[in-house]
Amino acid sequence: MKVDWQRAWNAMTEATRRVPGVLTRISEDTAWSIVHYAQELATEELSDATTYNASFEVDVEPMKASVRNVHPAALYLEEGTKPHLIFPTKQALRFLGREKIVYTRWVRHPGILGHAFLGVGRMMAEATLLEIVGNIGRELIE
Fold first, then answer.
1. Is 63 left (phi over 0), alpha (psi -120 to 50) or beta?
2. What is the CA radius of gyration of the chain?
3. Which of 25, 96, 122, 127 is the most exposed place for a label (fewest CB within 10 A)?
4. Closest Cα partner for 87 from 113, 102, 109, 72?
5. pLDDT of amino acid 127
6. What gap in Å lies between CA 75 and CA 84, rounded to an integer?
7. How is the chain split into domains, by residue range?
8. Do 66 and 35 contact (CB within 8 A), yes or no?
9. What's the pLDDT at 13?
């Protein structure tokens, strides 16, 4: 069997030229998958996840994508907090106690456990990506 080396070389050159664009699209799709999974988790866990879910940003560069949440409480929701004191920004804190409105100069917050929405979303998206790459590899071999 005679091989057309010029045709093979041209096909390889074309495939190599297209790889960065394909990898960039895969990176972007994976980043948006992370956002999607994180939003689903947040919706399940939080009483109102509307502003948190609207605060995701995805930056895509050639063959690289990054995901972040710019919500003011995103770090606390992701990593949690230790017990801490809360002081008012004005004169006093006001909240509804057991039966009446309470005013105080500070409160002891018990802290919260982190939810790791982005971390879990990343793991879920990676599993999906590995499955896609495995399928592509099997198709190329067959």
1. left
2. 24
3. 96
4. 109
5. 84
6. 16
7. 5-72+115-141
8. no
9. 75
For residues 57 and 111, what is the distance between their CA atoms, to the nearest angstrom?
A: 27
| Cβ contacts of 33 within 8 Å, gap of 6 or more | 121, 124, 125, 128, 129
Q: How many whole angstroms separate alpha carbon 47 and alpha carbon 113? A: 15
- The answer to whether 111 and 82 have CB atoms below 8 angstroms apart is yes
Per-residue confidence (pLDDT) for residue 15, from 0 to 100 = 67
- Planar angle of CA 123, 32, 117, nearest 5 degrees: 45
| Averaged pLDDT, groups of 10, the chain, 142 residues long | 71 71 81 92 92 94 86 93 93 90 93 92 86 71 61
Can you tell me the distance from the alpha carbon of 102 to that of 106, in angstroms, rounded to the nearest whole number? 11
